[in-house]
């Protein structure tokens, strides 16, 4: 039987994670029909196809033996069904040895296309059934993310109190960054005390001091803090060193479901198959553009790096005191992150990650992946792009960190900037900002011909590994509460433009605060948000430290591009060798 597509437009909106969720959902329905009742019988053909697609989407090896086992019918019957699918051109054999005796199986392009059509139509049908979409609109499939736990137009209530409080006999100490969500948490600590029946103590520190305090806390016999907020790229280092504990068992014990979170953001708190954190303040780096200024010169929001350079050059000086763009080129961490994240626009991570269907694998990083990719074609293209962009950048760009950059843009001194979504409140919520109500949001522009991606960053709540069992249970209860949808809404209403949950973003009252929430939801649905530009490896801070010096010197014309890339490559290579990576 051949599936005839009726919805080709939807295929591009189905992410890998959505298709995996379709497979899981259909599988659970078939199991209910075939194994728990007498209403159906085992469908070997579907079992083979679904298993083959699952392995393909996960980027895992598919052998004929494992495929026959997945069919759930006698071996001979399974082999006949597999042979039929090969004969129909839906599966193909690929030799794994010169003799050809060993081979792997793979879905063909025909099977992949048919499954994508099926998944898109399945999603549309579910959406129409449960009121998530409207079949009469072309954007029906963009109205929801398959597997997200939310209802369209549902207004979340004010947070309710815990039925059983945490207890005030011991304080709940939380360590976090000087960032909007944690500033809000500290301000509303008295409210949280009442809601949770607890006594909260918040310590918030600048990023570098926060990292130092986490390392100091690890050296203590027992953690001073009950919960620590971790910058997502630090997950690998803190997990490897035993500073934070894996949460898979807690998640399973409490039947905690992460499917309401943006999948990319949920995955960003994972390391080597273990969940180490619950997202609380995720953020996405976007391109912020003044729509009014672009319109004045007859341009639209740039979608490629070439278009961005052209727009920056055109807008630079087009009005008195206006720069084309303001960049985060400050020495150290700011310029390092700018280089790392811009390399993704030229199609490359900073280390040799394995390719996946929709990007690069950050969940299974082995010794072969620890090879720096700085002194490469993509590295050179990145360096040349940033140096050229400097010509049209605000004169303070070489001094900029995140706060200074967004301040310059908000005051109307630059027409464009890259910026973390959490910081858009600076102009979105301040009616006195010159940029207020005039900003368009878009993913990072990419090198012409490449897919656009936007890096995911922000913080996740984690549990220190030295907590005893009783303290860990109390901390988990608080962590679960602080990341509930209604709490996320409270953070937004307090001026924090961040939401890792679909249910929070779908709230009409949240959407009324900023159109950026819908833009980010759509980017997640289209697979634009990515973790791989900032891989969670233990050496991430070392890499940033090296690049923060080298790239800064290059932008100040103190080193050539080639000398910069060679030096950075060699230094990072030395770090990996000293750590025994290869």
Question: How would you explain this protein's 3D organization?
Answer:
This protein is an alpha+beta fold. It has three domains: 131 residues, Winged helix-like DNA-binding domain superfamily/Winged helix DNA-binding domain (Arc Repressor Mutant, subunit A); 172 residues, Periplasmic binding protein-like II (D-Maltodextrin-Binding Protein, domain 2, 3-Layer(aba) Sandwich); 219 residues, D-Maltodextrin-Binding Protein, domain 2, CATH 3.40.190. 44% of the residues lie in helices and 13% in strands. It is built from 24 helices and 14 strands. The strands form four sheets. Strands 3, 4, 5, 8, 11, 12, 13 and 14 form an eight-stranded mixed beta sheet that branches. A hairpin with a 2-residue loop joins strand 9 and strand 10. Helix 1 packs antiparallel against helix 2 and helix 3 crosses helix 4. The chain starts with 15 loop residues before the first helix and ends with a helix. The N terminus is likely disordered.
Write the layout of secondary structure elements.
Layout: H1 16-34, H2 44-58, H3 64-70, H4 75-87, E1 91-95, E2 103-107, H5 109-130, E3 167-177, H6 180-187, H7 189-196, E4 198-205, H8 207-219, E5 227-231, H9 235-240, H10 248-253, H11 263-268, E6 270-271, E7 274-275, E8 278-290, H12 291-296, H13 305-315, H14 333-345, E9 355-356, E10 359-360, H15 377-390, H16 402-410, E11 416-420, H17 425-428, E12 439-442, E13 454-462, H18 469-482, H19 485-493, H20 502-505, H21 508-511, H22 516-525, E14 529-530, H23 540-555, H24 561-578
Parallel strand pairs: 3-4, 3-5, 13-14
Antiparallel strand pairs: 1-2, 5-13, 6-7, 8-11, 8-12, 8-13, 9-10
Helix pairs in contact: 1-2, 1-5, 3-4, 14-15, 14-23, 23-24
């Amino acid at each position: 039987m051949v599936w005839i597509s009726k919805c080709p437009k939807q295929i591009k909106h189905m992410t890998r994670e959505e298709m995996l969720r379709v497979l899981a959902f259909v599988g659970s329905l078939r199991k209910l029909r075939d194994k728990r009742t007498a209403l159906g019988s085992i469908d070997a053909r579907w079992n083979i196809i679904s298993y083959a697609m699952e392995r393909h989407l996960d980027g895992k090896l598919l052998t004929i033996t494992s495929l026959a086992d997945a069919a759930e019918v006698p071996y001979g019957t399974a082999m006949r069904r597999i042979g039929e699918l090969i004969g129909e051109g839906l599966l193909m054999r690929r030799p794994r040895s010169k003799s050809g005796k060993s081979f792997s199986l793979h879905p063909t392009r025909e099977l992949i296309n048919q499954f994508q059509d099926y998944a898109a139509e399945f999603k549309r049908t579910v959406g129409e059934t449960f009121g998530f979409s409207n079949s009469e609109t072309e954007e029906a499939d963009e109205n929801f993310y398959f597997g997200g736990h939310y209802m369209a137009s549902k207004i979340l209530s004010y947070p309710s109190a815990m039925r059983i409080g945490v207890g005030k006999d011991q304080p709940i100490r939380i360590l976090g960054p000087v960032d909007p969500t944690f500033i809000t948490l500290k301000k509303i600590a008295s409210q949280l005390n009442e809601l949770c029946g607890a006594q909260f103590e918040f310590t918030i520190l600048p990023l570098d001091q926060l990292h130092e305090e986490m390392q100091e806390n690890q050296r203590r016999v027992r953690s001073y803090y009950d919960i620590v907020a971790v910058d997502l790229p630090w997950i690998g280092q803190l997990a490897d060193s035993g500073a934070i504990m894996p949460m898979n068992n807690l998640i399973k014990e409490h039947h905690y479901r992460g499917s309401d979170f943006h999948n990319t953001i949920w995955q960003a708190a994972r390391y080597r198959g273990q969940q180490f954190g619950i997202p609380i303040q995720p953020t996405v780096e976007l391109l912020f553009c003044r729509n009014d200024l672009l319109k004045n010169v007859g341009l639209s929001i740039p979608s490629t790096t070439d278009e961005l350079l052209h727009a920056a050059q055109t807008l630079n000086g087009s009005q008195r005191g206006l720069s084309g763009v303001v960049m985060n080129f400050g020495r150290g961490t700011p310029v390092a992150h700018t280089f790392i994240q811009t390399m993704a626009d030229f199609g490359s991570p900073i280390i040799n990650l394995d390719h996946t269907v929709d990007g690069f694998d950050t969940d299974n990083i082995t010794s072969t992946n620890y090879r720096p990719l700085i002194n490469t074609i993509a590295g050179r293209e990145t360096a040349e792009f940033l140096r050229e962009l400097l010509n049209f950048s605000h004169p303070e760009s070489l001094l900029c960190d995140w706060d200074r950059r967004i301040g310059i843009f908000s005051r109307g001194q630059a027409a464009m900037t890259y910026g973390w979504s959490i910081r858009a409140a600076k102009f979105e919520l301040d009616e006195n900002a010159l940029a207020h109500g005039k900003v368009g949001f878009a993913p990072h522009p990419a090198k012409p011909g490449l897919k656009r991606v936007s890096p995911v960053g922000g913080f996740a709540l984690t549990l220190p590994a030295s907590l005893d069992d009783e303290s860990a249970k109390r901390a988990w209860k608080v962590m679960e509460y602080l990341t509930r949808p209604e709490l996320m809404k409270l953070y937004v209403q307090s001026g924090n433009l961040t939401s890792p949950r679909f249910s929070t973003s779908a709230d009409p009252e949240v959407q009324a605060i900023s159109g950026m929430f819908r833009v980010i939801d759509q980017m997640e649905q289209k697979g634009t948000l990515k973790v791989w530009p900032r891989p969670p490896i233990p050496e991430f801070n070392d890499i940033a430290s090296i690049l923060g010096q080298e790239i800064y010197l290059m932008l100040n014309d103190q080193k050539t591009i080639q000398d910069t890339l060679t030096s950075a490559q060699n230094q990072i290579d030395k770090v990996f060798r000293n750590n025994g990576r290869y």
